[in-house]
Write a structure and sequence with these properties.
The structure holds two protein chains of two kinds.
Chain A lengths: L6 H15 L4 H38 L15 H10 L11 H17 L18 H22 L3 H32 L4 H6 L5 H4 L1 H14 L9
Helix pairs in contact in A: 1-2, 4-5, 5-6, 6-9
Chain B lengths: L2 H26 L6 H4 L18 H25 L1 H4 L1 H23 L7
Classes of the chains: A mainly alpha, B mainly alpha.
Chain lengths: 234, 117
């Protein structure tokens, strides 16, 4: 195995070899290496996400004729870190009337739905979590957990406004999920596979150019589906 | 390693991260509960009655119509994978399948269930 063809595989094999050398069970060593790999991938994603939040705040601020975060660090780049620290040292309250289990489970599910998407997203041909043969469906299914978490959060807090808000947001997300699923059929038809890696590998001509309308619909539906500010129901 | 075992491991890590974040916040944050702070939060106004109100049954019908089309697309995915090999027969079959479900949507529409009144 050449290191430069598949560096992650070589590194993983080496690491599991080290673990086995310490007297660990081979299967357990593989699971542990996979665990560390997932943890690394998620850590990278979260750090990227911190700066994406900064970009979103800056861009939305420009839309609204403001300048956005600009106090901490150059162009306010440190602002998200300050916000994280602030959120960490704030009191975490659960209202007495709320459904305590569901109330606390909702944000966890919301985050999990975003993180597990990346199990099938290939960053490079050899740099991916797992190449499921139902990758496209997995992405849709994992994304739908986000819808579930919104209705859980709205319903459990025992607040009439949040219930109404959750209903409205779920209606938006649900109605944009159908076109998103429908246009995902097009790359599936073109490549004859639902695996993300196969879809990417079979694009001699980019599918964006083969069916631009589908790409546009998917883009809009995906923006609505993640519930970002651009297409929020309010 | 098995692919789905890996996905399961991803689920576990995906849950550990937010649980850890909330756990750290729980450790670092102050804990000074009082009755007013713990009351149901409704934008500072005293809540009247329960938040768990009855919602309109039409919302349920919307969900049912959504479910029909959600399941439809899930069935269309295996169809799409083999469409290249199966040719014209599969195209006609797919159209018939979609038309059957569209008939249900038209029925719901004609019944006036999609109007929010």
């Amino acid at each position: 195995m050449n290191f430069w063809n598949d560096p992650l595989k070589v590194a993983a094999d080496w690491l599991s070899g080290v673990f086995v050398g310490w007297g660990m069970n081979a299967v357990f060593a593989n699971v542990l290496v996979a665990f560390l790999g997932i943890l690394m991938l998620i850590t990278i994603l979260m750090v990227v996400d911190i700066f994406l939040v900064w970009i979103e705040r800056k861009v939305v601020a420009r839309f609204q004729d403001r300048i956005g975060p600009n106090r901490l660090g150059p162009f306010g780049l440190i602002q998200p870190f300050a916000d994280i620290i602030k959120l960490m040292i704030k009191e975490d309250t659960t209202p007495d009337g709320a459904d305590k289990v569901v109330y606390n489970l909702a944000p966890m599910l919301s985050m999990m739905s975003v993180l597990i998407l990346w199990a099938v997203v290939p960053l490079a041909p050899v740099m991916l979590g797992v190449d499921l043969n139902a990758g496209a469906l997995f992405i849709i299914a994992a994304g739908s957990i986000g819808t579930l978490s919104i209705i859980m959060a709205g319903w459990s807090s025992n607040n009439k406004f949040s219930v109404i808000g959750a209903f409205r947001q779920v209606a938006v997300m649900v109605s944009f999920e159908i076109p998103m699923l429908a246009v995902l059929l097009i790359p599936t038809i073109f490549s004859g596979s639902m695996g993300m890696n196969t879809i990417i590998q079979s694009q001699n001509i980019w599918y964006v150019f083969l069916s631009p309308l589908a790409a546009l619909i998917f883009l809009i539906a995906a923006i609505a589906g993640v519930g970002t500010r651009a297409l929020r129901s309010c | 390693m098995n692919e789905w075992l890996y996905v399961g491991l991803f689920f576990i890590v995906g849950l550990i991260i937010p649980v850890g974040a909330i756990g750290v916040a729980w450790i670092l944050g102050p804990k000074k509960p009082n009755p007013i702070k713990q009351s149901t939060y409704e934008c500072g106004i005293e809540p009247v009655g329960e938040g768990w109100v009855q919602f309109k049954a039409q919302y349920y019908i919307f969900a049912l119509v959504f479910l029909v089309f959600d399941v439809e697309t899930v069935f269309l995915f295996p169809w799409a994978v083999r469409l290249g090999q199966l040719g014209m027969f599969a195209v006609v079959e797919g159209i018939v399948f979609i038309l059957i479900l569209v008939a249900g949507l038209v029925y719901t529409w004609r019944k006036g269930m999609l109007e929010w009144a």
